[in-house]
Amino acid sequence: MRSTRPERFRGQSAPLSLRELETLFERGYDTGSKRFLAAVWGLDPDHVTAEQLSGVLADREHLEKRLEGVVSLQQIALGHVASSGGRLRGESLRRELLLRGFGETTESLRDLVERGLLVPLPSPGESEFDIEKLLEHENFLQHELAVGEAVYERFSGFSSDVGPEALGTFSGAIRETAVSSIESLELNLLHLTSALSKEALRLNKSGTPNRRSLGRAAAGIVLPGQSGLASEPLDLNDPLQLDYLTFLLALSVELGLVELDAYHLVAVPGAMEKYFTSDELRRDRQLLLAIQNVKYWSEIKSLALSKNRSRLPAGEQFSQFEATGEPLIGARGYVFSVLKRARLEGWTPLDALVALCASLDRSYLTRVLARSHEEIEPEDYIQTVLRRALVWMGFLQLGESEDGMELARFHARGRQALGIASAAGEGAESSAVAGAGGPTGCMIVQPNFEIMVFLDAAPLEVIYFLYRVGVRIGLSDRMATFRLTAESVQRGFSQGESAAGVRERLTGLSHTPVPDSVAFQLDDWERVHRQLQFFASGVILRHRDPDRLELVIDQFEHDLGGEGQLIRIGPTTVFVMTEREDLLGRLIERESALVVDYLGTLPPCISFVEPLVVQVDSTACDFITLSELLRVGVELDDPPEGCSRAGRYFALDIAKIRQRWPEDSLDAVLEFLEQRVAGGVPAAQALKLQSLLDQPAYARLRHDVTVIVLESKAVADRFEAIPQCQELELERLGDCSFSVPSKWLGRLKSVFDEVGIEFDDSDVS
Amino acid sequence: MSLKSSLVVHRGVALVMCESSAILEETLRALDSSSLSQLHMQRLGDRALAMPAYEVEIVRRALEERGIYPKIVGTLEESSDSSKEDDEEEDV
């Protein structure tokens, strides 16, 4: 017995045996502790022995009596210790209960220690263990708490997965108060972004969506609280509806499905395809990241908005320029990180969930909230994340028990998104439902071009495909109806679909064969679609000599070796699409070609051949200049006399110039021409244009005058200031010269003599 | 003006190719709107339209607004769409 030291109790995964208890009370606990326990357990404190104390703990017969008054939560705590092998660090036990949604349990655990049902073990090397002090300072949670063999046996069948529902604190049927799901959210995201891919959302200067534009984009969105039925039309005066749309837009931006382009939000087709066709697990992760980092929507303002039901004070909440949610990224991330560690099963009191998030690292949450400049208590903030962000994401479901307790539980995909441990099985199961046997038969293609799709059976990528080629015309709880139209199918073709591909896909997905009428129409729409092709970017090669062009093109085609597409537009024009810039560069060099680069400075191409008649080279002139000349002039059918037939000729038309540039017409047309005429606009042409567009330049002819040229401007200035000159009808001509009527020549000479100006009048007759 | 070389290379050009001249006429009619008056399309032959590549996205959008969805070859260049009319007034 003497060799037994308190250290031996630590690290063992077994309940305390009678012998260990005796040793503990004999050597580990101090006298005060033993007296304290004796008093609590109804023994004589003055004469209590270690055997008596350990006997109480080991007594199986009277255990039930000792358990009287032990509440369900405490029994669950004992069960957790038992399922952990009979002992568990106090803080770990508290945390475990917290993560399972039982809320703060320190007091309950203290009570179990006082009842002797949980026995704190001394730390290594510690003797004279003072349990009163331990309880007083709440240090008992820093120690291992063990149960005796009797308690261990009593709770050995306990399931560690039990949740707060076992407490019986809520009862009866649970009514769902907030209906949402990730599936519904994704359907909304798909619906909204598809609408934005057809028409960008216009924003006001404040960044808030233009009402009419938003009304069109958001028609058909399922609002929170609606069970799968699309709300149509939306009431954009309702702040909650507007806020939900803001939330969807902000989430779409964060997911990269939509991007800001000046005063428009536009869809990003590539990102849409990537997101909506990826697997559920990946999408869930992306959704989690997006809501954690969402910037253009704030859960705090959102919840305040629905409480106040007042839109005016929260204008910034609806703006796509105001990053109202950005300061909350840290706080939001904290709440999510706590929830990721939670081990919640089934319904949990909402307050317990709040307590869990508020307790785990409260100081950090307080700090990040302070940095966000939001004046909000941690508990209140957590409520906003739970009630708004998580519910709208479809991660969390809210409910109420018959006795009025507010409850929450995670959806299977919410658990999957958050990576909650035990959810993996459920998540896989939920994915397997849709994946079982593939989505075959998830829709019916009807001869009237309508497709009924069963949402529960159709993976998101199938619905995305239908959005690409169809228009959603109806939505109910479990079914959506799409219609194939010429417009929608051709839009799909423009995004890379093909008639054969669409037909094959529908055949694979449809419960019934694709009707012949639909298959035929798809082919016909494709035929029409191919009638118009856009080649996004390339080069046009032009040469006046068709034979020479043919030689050049043959060589170039050979050089390309199939790495490009050549389209012969006419005998002197070929369009080429190729990535081989090097070959193109070589061609330009070899042929000493003139390059007209539409992203650079365009080479001059206009020359004046007659007053207000210009000529351009039909192959070398750029399209911008040609278009503008057609707007400001009239093309001549025949070249002016003496001009080559090779060019194109335009007579500038004053009325058309004024129509093209209603303000500052002269300046505008001169600027246009200056950039395009080698050496600038000829002076005579500029004067002519001025005379027609502005006002004619004015000239005054004078006879019988004599011109005085003085030696410098200074002399001219002094001369002009002489009072006698005022009568000479002088007219200044530049810095040094004046004209004077010849009749005053005599007087002028007198003035010269008077002021001492020497002059030479040999030229004056 | 005279050219040093007879080969001219227009770079950064988009091409709209129609199956027939009738389709081209139809397309031009669809594009005949004041909102597109600033664009610089040029007709080349009976079936083709050429324009600076940065303007083609505006043309595509305009056609799509009229229910015409052309087949796109290559990646369209983004455009600031300065010619697009703001048909909706600012909310007050």
Your description of this structure?
The complex is a heterodimer of chains A (765) and B (92). By secondary structure, chain A is α+β, with helices and mostly antiparallel strands. Chain A is 46% helix and 15% strand. In chain A, β11 (443-445) and β12 (450-454) form a beta hairpin. In chain A, α15 crosses α19, α17 (350-360) packs across α19 and α24 packs antiparallel against α25. The N and C termini of chain A lie far apart (149 Å). Mean pLDDT of chain A is 84; it is low at 1-10 and 423-437. Chain B is built from 2 helices and 4 strands, in the order βαββαβ. Chain B has helices at residues 21-31, 56-65; strands spanning 8-18, 42-44, 48-52, 71-73. Chain B has a 3-stranded antiparallel sheet. In chain B, β2 and β3 (48-52) form a beta hairpin. The radius of gyration of chain B is 15 Å and the shape is globular. Classes of the chains: A alpha+beta (765), B alpha+beta (92). At the A-B interface, α11, α23, β15, α26 and β16 of A face β1, β3, α2 and β4 of B. β18 (594-597) of chain A pairs parallel with β1 of chain B.
Task: Give the mean pLDDT of chain A.
Answer: 84
Largest protein-protein interface = A-B, 71 and 56 residues
Total strand segments of chain B:
4
Would you tell me the structural class of the helices and strands of chain A? Answer: alpha+beta
Low-confidence sequence ranges of chain B: 81-87
Helix share bin of chain B = 10-25%
- State the low-pLDDT regions of chain A, or none: 1-10, 423-437
N- and C-termini, Cα separation of chain A: 149 Å
Total of helices of chain B: 2
Compressed to H and E, one letter per element, the order of chain B equals: EHEEHE
Largest sheet of chain B: 3 strands, antiparallel
